[in-house]
Amino acid sequence: MAVSYAHVDRLRRRAELYEELGVLENTQKYKAQAEKYRNQFVQAQASLPKSGRDLPEGVVLEVKDLCMYFGGVKAVDGLSFDVKKGEIFGLIGPNGAGKTTVFNCITQFYKPTAGSLYFENKSGQVVDLNKEVVHDVILQGIVRTFQNVEVVRELSVLDNLLIAGHRQFTSGLFTQALHLPFLKKEEKVVRERALKVLDFMGLTQYKDWYAVGLPYGILKKIEIARTLMCEPQLIILDEPAAGLNDTETAELAKLIRRIKEEYNCTILLVEHDMGLVMEICDRICAISFGKLLITGTPAEVQADPNVQAAYLGVGDDDDFDDDDDEEED
Amino acid sequence: MSKENRLSFGKNPLAQILVFVVVLVLLQVLAMNGIISAAFVYAVGNTLIYAIIAIGFCLLLGYSGLASLGTAGFIGIGAYIGFYIIQEFGMPFILALIITVAVALVIGSLVGFISLRIEGIYLAILTLGLAEIIRNLLMVIKATIKIDINNVKLFGITISDRGGYFLILAVFAVLMLVTSHLINSPTGRAMVAMKNSTSAAQAMGISLMKYRLMAFVIATIYAAIGGLLYMMYVRTMTTSSSLLLTLTTSLNILGAVIIGGAKSLWGTTLGAFIIYGIQSMFLSKIPFFVKHPAFITMITGVLIIIVVMFFPGGIAQIFSNIGMKLKAKKLAAAAPAGGKEEA
Amino acid sequence: MFAVFLSTMCGTLLSICITAIAAFAVTLIFRTSTTTNFAQGSIAALGCYVTAHLFNKSGVPVWIGVIPGVLVGIAVGLFVDIVIFRNGKNVTPVGKQIITMGLVSIIFGGLPLIFGNAESTPFEPFYNTVKKGVKPNFIIEAFGGRIVITKHAIICVIITVVVLGVLFFLLKHSKWGLGVRCTASNEFTAELMGINTHVITAVSWGIAGGLGVLAAVMYAGGGTMISPSFMTTVQVNAFLAGILGGFSTFHGPVVGAILIPVGASFVGFLANFPGMAGISRWNMVVVYVAMMIVILIKPQGLLGRKILKKV
Questions:
Q1: Of A34, A180, C104, C158, which residue is least crowded by CB atoms under 10 Å?
Q2: How confident is the model at residue C296 (pLDDT cuts 50, 70, 90)?
Q3: How close does chain B come to A297, measured CA to CA in Å?
Q4: With a CB-CB cutoff of 8 Å, which residues 186-215 of chain B face chain A?
Q5: Residues of chain B positioned with their CB less than 8 A from the CB of A228
Q6: Total domains in the fold of chain B
Q7: Given an 8 Å threshold on Cβ–Cβ distance, is B309 in contact with C285?
Q8: Mean pLDDT, all residues of chain C
Q9: What percent of chain A is modeled with pLDDT above 90?
Q10: 3-state SS string over C157-178?
Q11: CATH number where B263 lies
């Protein structure tokens, strides 16, 4: 029988919860169960022809020959790049280059037309992202933010973070309908985690405020805070500096570095602010019209004639497209 | 910018429900002593049935942002199951309740799964179609259904009008408690997240299908339970001439939720009392309204439109705004006094 | 048996016409205002009441009385878009849906107040031409049986083909049609391109209201009893037709509008076979289930195109 990784995760989280609550026997019990299911999962994965393969040493995400077509529009066309563990990786390109589409493919908001996406998840297992459902991607440790801030306006800032912790709850419908003590314990643990994140982000003073009406800079921070709720392995930031002033952008650069160090994760970002990208990224991938131009260090990318041509429009004067990409088909 | 954390633990819905139950029990006690009319209390019980249905709809509309027009059809299913189980087969009420819930669960899941796969907006269309078909089918199966009072039994005891009233009150209390627990739990949060931003919800690991379906199935079950309770309480229904199974009922329930406040369970209950209660408890004595029962439907429509246009939070929001203003005034009154002392 | 089959199918002509017109109207609103107009049927009923009132009380012939009826429909349509939708504070698609539901309540409640409670069959003297010595049906002897077609159905088919033909032509070749198609594909971009989307949606609402009334008068003219909710079934079928054919095109719902009545009466026709007598009461259930299966396999509808949401 096929074992879903989500179930392993569920058991593992239950064990963690009991550990935090100090109930040792339950911790042991769920740990053992999680281990058992994990082994079954690994075996099942190994027997599959495509998944269960190894990524090159140090690589956390491998994008290979990724294509995303919308009818005749080739938003992404045969793009390949690797993201290494623990680095800040930038994806740049002129408007309409297909950057957000790449993100949407990685997080499975779009099912790619072709190409493979392999990712090493939290427990060191290599997964084929194309086989994941969009709402299960977070379980593998991939979280994203959105270009046009998607904060739940009807909820408080703290509740927004608790939403990001949604998959950390293991209580079933009945436990929730009856508010059994287990749910309250769980809520307490997740809430403390959220308070810690708020403290880290310097948002504690806003915790009880409704998101609606808060300044744009704060909303952007809430989005980033949300990504920290679930032990992220790979954080995907879609234009984090858009709409921020110079001071805020400088703060953001520091924040992204701090997040990388504190949470020991990899960061993949799309950004138009070249100053920010060149300053914080370890490596950069430049794309234009869905095709790879170059992958390399900031200095290499800056020196590349193709990148300059794409940005300055030498020989090709067509970068007045509406924001990013994709329309209806 | 309001500084209040609504969806959190600590607020106790149990106390509110207890107060409500005590008040309604007192009403019945007063009626037993002849202080108020029995017909009035009977009408309260009747309205409570609609409140139960409206609570389920509140979860669907206010929390998940989905509209359904199938309520009347599900009420019909509950009512007919009640008739067949209790009257035709002579089984106890509890069994009818279990079967009603099971059938509503199955039909709700099937219809919900198929229509929610496309887009939220399709749910209203497909449920509207379903309700019409159910009504036509039920009419063909049996035009008039009638339950003998001696057949309605709970744990071997025959349920009279008064017993029915208490039973409805008990069901209301239980469902109110369960629903408010659900709203104040990860499920409720997930629903609100989904309503505000489907993309954010999905990125945070919330399955749209799971929670939309859950909300729809819950609304379906509550409506079917409402139909069953109606059958037990009113005990007769002429499907062809009664408005109960037509679109009007679905719209009235929607109206109750919208007018009362789509995000507040108590607001919704109030909405049910406004739309159904006022008519059956008070207006039934005024000749104009007896002659033109449709008038109240028209007013409901006008109120729905005005509320959607200008007061998206319904009456509940108007109340909470007043409450907040009073609080702010108190604070403002207290602040200068404190300042003076310091000076 | 084949003659019976043909006769059954001819019997659905009227219902195909009505459903097709209603489905086109619903689609027009769905595409330009991204909402489902649940008041389509009740606006239609309102206009039909007006026509019926003129016919019965003032003796105005139906083909003249239908004009004020349609005008009422257009006026209500315009009112919904211009007065209600434009003035609400950030009204969402579901909010718009609910507003149209509220409108249904108003019309359901208002019609009995204006026109009295009694349900009536207003056009009885109109369709019942036997008294005047005119036969209501064409009867063709063929395939060893008699095929019956009502004259009313034939007139309605002609009206429907002309009206829908003109509308499809306008959609394709007029400035308004281009505007509708642009607004349908992306309202915001259409506005940026200089299209006055307010005019486009308002005109669409007006046309939808008028079409609804036309369909209602055709339906009632066939001898149907009218009540505030008499168009509900037609409207339900129009919506189902839209889903079945796919709301993303304009011709899809019309195709759906042909399939649904035909499907329903085909199930009814099966009752002619031995052992199937009871099936006719299940006809809509069978059609509904069949439609559910279709959209389970093809969620965008038979002729629909898949639309990806931008994140």
A1: C158
A2: confident
A3: 30
A4: 186-187, 189-190, 192-193, 195-197, 199-208, 214
A5: none
A6: 1
A7: no
A8: 85
A9: 31
A10: HHHHHHHHHHHHHHHHHCHHHH
A11: 1.10.3470
Least confident of A24-28, A142-146, B338-342, C214-218: B338-342
Closest CA relative to residue C284, chosen from C307, C305, C266: C266
In contact, B218 and B71? CB cutoff 8 Å: no
User: What pLDDT does residue A49 have?
Assistant: 46
C185 occurs within a structural domain: yes
Nearest CA in chain B to A169: B186
Chain B hits for A184, CB-CB cut-off 8 Å, are 9
Chain A: give the shortest CA distance to residue B63, in Å. 10
Beta strands in A16-171 (DSSP E): 59-70, 73-84, 88-92, 114-120, 126-128, 142-144
pLDDT of residue A6: 66
Inter-chain CB proximity A135 and B181 less than 8 Å = no
Using a CB-CB cut-off of 8 Å, the residues of chain C touching A146 are: 311
Contact: B203, A107; criterion CB under 8 Å: yes
Check residue A314 and give its pLDDT: 55
User: CA A15, CA A25: separation in Å to the nearest integer?
Assistant: 10
Whether residue B334 lies inside any domain: the answer is no
Q: Does any domain span residue C293?
A: no
What pLDDT digit, counting tens, does each position of C179-194 carry? 888 888 887 888 888 8
Residues from chain C that touch B253, judged by Cβ atoms under 8 A, are none
Interchain pair C288, B69: CB under 8 A = no
Q: What is the value of pTM for the model shown?
A: 0.86
Residue B86 structural domain: 13-312
Q: Give the tens place of pLDDT for each residue, A109-139.
A: 999 999 999 998 877 778 888 988 899 899 8
Structure tokens at C49: 């009441």
Pairs of CB atoms within 8 A across A/C: 19
Whether the complex's predicted ipTM is more than 0.90 is answered with no
Nearest residue to A329 via CA among A75, A98, A82, A84: A75
Total domains in chain C come to 1
Assess if residue B328 is contained within a domain: no
Secondary structure (3-state) at B42: helix
Domain that holds residue C190: 2-230
Question: What is the phi/psi pair of residue A234, to 5°?
Answer: -135, 120
Cβ-based neighbour number of residue B190 at 10 Å: 26
Inter-chain residue contact C305 with A104, CB threshold 8 Å:
no
Q: A302: which 2 tokens?
A: 């800056």
pLDDT at C184: 82
Q: Identify the band that residue A323 occupies on the pLDDT scale cut at 50, 70 and 90.
A: very low
In this complex, do C308 and A110 lie within 8 Å of one another by their Cβ atoms?
yes
Q: Tell whether C302 is covered by a domain.
A: no
Across the interface, whether the CB atoms of C311 and A329 are under 8 A apart is answered no
Residue C22 lies inside a defined structural domain of this protein: yes
pLDDT, one tens digit per residue, over A165-202 is 888 888 888 888 888 888 888 888 899 999 999 999 99
**Residue to test with chain A: of B8, B119, B176, B185, most A Cβ within 10 A:** B185
